[in-house]
Every structure is written in C-alpha cells, then in structure tokens.
Design goal:
By secondary structure, this protein is mainly α. Helices cover 77% and strands 0% of the residues. The relative contact order is 0.06.
Length: 62
C-alpha cells in the first residue's frame, strides 16, 4: 500500500508542472519537435510501406 500511494500523487504532481512550463517556455521547440517526430514516424512507415508493397507486387508478377 505504501508503494501504491506515492506513485499516484507523484505522477499527478509532476505532469502539470513540467507540461505548463514546457509549453510556454519552449512552444516552438515542443511543437517543432513534437510535430515532425509524430508525423515523421507514422508517415514514413505508411508511405514507404505502400510504395514498397506496390513495387514488390508489380515486379513479382512481371
């Protein structure tokens, strides 16, 4: 019980402070890094997967 009690308050107290300070402090850095990273990760695999799959399929039958 002692271990379960500290985690909840600690996690709730930490997120609100760093999040509020991080947003106003580094709005451009946070957005610039968050946008490219989030978009870059899901975009490359999806776009690359599609062309690669199509290319392989086209070449396979040919």
């Amino acid at each position: 019980m002692a271990v379960s009690i500290p985690p909840p308050p600690s996690r709730r107290s930490l997120p609100p402070r760093p999040i509020k300070r991080s947003l106003p402090s580094l709005p451009r850095s946070s957005l610039a890094l968050a946008l490219p990273i989030n978009v870059s990760l899901p975009v490359p695999p999806s776009m690359f997967s599609t062309p690669v799959a199509n290319s392989t399929s086209s070449f396979s039958p040919n």
